[in-house]
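INSTRUCTION: Work out how this chain folds

Token vocabulary: learned, describes local backbone geometry

RECORD BEGINS BELOW THIS LINE
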Amino acid sequence: MTSLRTRAVTGGILLAVVTIVLALAGLGSFMNAQTQTRFTDLLRNRHSQAIVAAASYLDRPDKLGRTLGDPAYQRPFSGEYWQIQSPEGAVYRSPSLVKAALPAPTGSSTERRSIEYVGPTGNLVVGISQWIILDDGSRWHVQVASSLDQLEAELDAVRQSLLSAFAIVAFVGVLGALAQVAMILQPLNALRKDVSARWEGENGLEVESYPVEVAPLVTDINGLMDRNRDIIRRSRRQAADLAHAIKTPSAIMRNELGALENKGMPVQDALEALDRLDAQLKRSFARMRADGGENAVGVFTDLDAALGRMQRAFSALARNAEKEFSADYEPDLRVRMDQSDFEEVMGNLLDNALKWSEGRVLLTAKRSDDNSVIIMVADDGPGIPQEEIAQVTRSGHRLDVSKPGTGLGLAIASDLINAYGGDILLSRSEVLGGLSAVVRLPSSGSSSLDHG
């Protein structure tokens, strides 16, 4: 699945590349034309200088050379040449030609001609030549030539400069695209964080705080959150109503069986069956209440209050059973779980621990490194063999029928914990030696936060 960031960055980079390529091609063509024009203009200017020098100093060859004093004319085979000659064979050449010569003139036209030919060193040159008539009536052929290697060198320098400049432009363009994408996606990132924060409270998102383009999405999210709250509330209410409706007939049946038992009739099997039925219904109702619990909006439990009640209740039960119960939990813990479901989970775990303990039960709670909450219930009882641990969370499985119960306490607790995105781990306690039940639940922030 491609992200919006990847699409935006890729699109921006492709657009920048196309723009830069087109700009490079257009500007490169323009700069090439300018370079070639400058080369041609320079060659024409040199030809004009050669004509002026010929008209003024043909009778003084030493001064002719000084008048055409470009340093390039002095270096042997520099690529810049001039040559002046008459029909009778008098020839004056630039020192750069050494002993070589430019092509002999053809025709007698006084028009300026420009041609390409092989120069003295075997490379191509561009030459401009023209017959001129001096004041004394003599005719002279004046020509200058310049190597195309120099033109190519200038063109290469222009191309290198353009490539360097556009490489910098491309780099800045990519950075600009990344910055632009970050700015564009900032409202969506803020929306994601706000949804995560508001998911725990009743308040909706403030539509006015988002850009106009994002506002319809925010409105739809508010609608979905409201609908989620409504569905959760109705499902919990229906489960509670159904449980209440079944309690009355179950109580009547239990009373009738009790009356028959008082008359001496064997009803123990029926009572046990009714106990299992009640436990299965209780587990099913717990599942119904917890359905969607992990994604429920505005659902949380303050452990200061919930564990405080558990500590008071089970401390009293432990004293009555001549056992010891102790609790140690960090303050300001809060889990993303309905309070009644949390108390049912802890009630089942603590009741199971107190039932099987020899004399001690320990409850601890703390925040973990991944910001979840870890709750441990341990006892000093016989524990559960490692190979049978997986069985105790199954429906109706009892490892020891000598103790009262339905065998569904741990199964109900496991169902509720999993429904809220948590997990439970059963093992032997390293502290007390009995069973250790470690519950991990998603945190819902500090209890000092606004509860919405």
Q: What stands out?
A: The longest helix spans residues 4-57.
